[in-house]
Amino acid sequence: RPEVVRFNAAFTAKYGAPPDAGSALGYDCIQLLAHAMKQAGSAVPEDVAHALHALKDWRGVTGAFSFDEKGDADKPVIFSVVRSGRFEYLPAPAPASPGGAPPRAVRLRP
Fold this sequence. Notes:
- This protein has three helices and four strands; from the N terminus they run αααββββ.
- It is an alpha+beta fold.
- The strands form two sheets. It has a two-stranded antiparallel ribbon with strand order 1-2. It has a two-stranded antiparallel ribbon with strand order 3-4.
- α2 crosses α3 (45-53).
- It is globular and about 40 Å long.
- The termini are far apart.
């Protein structure tokens, strides 16, 4: 996708190294918030939240973003921890069943 190519080139030119997933997600988060503030015409949290809830298929470098009426993102969450200077991906907790107990916390090994 062209936006990914542009992001990778700009990031590499500025920082001298290619971006990692965290860099791309961080970029998308800031761009998404800026978009929601423009849509809301405001930086007031409630106004931005309403704009985000109405958002459908906003395209970022990491893919499309949508939110439901509760504000939950329609995008998988990736859990990771840094060990010895490297990211280690963790399994996601099982989702709660409707009306059931909330998901268990993910235990991080030291």
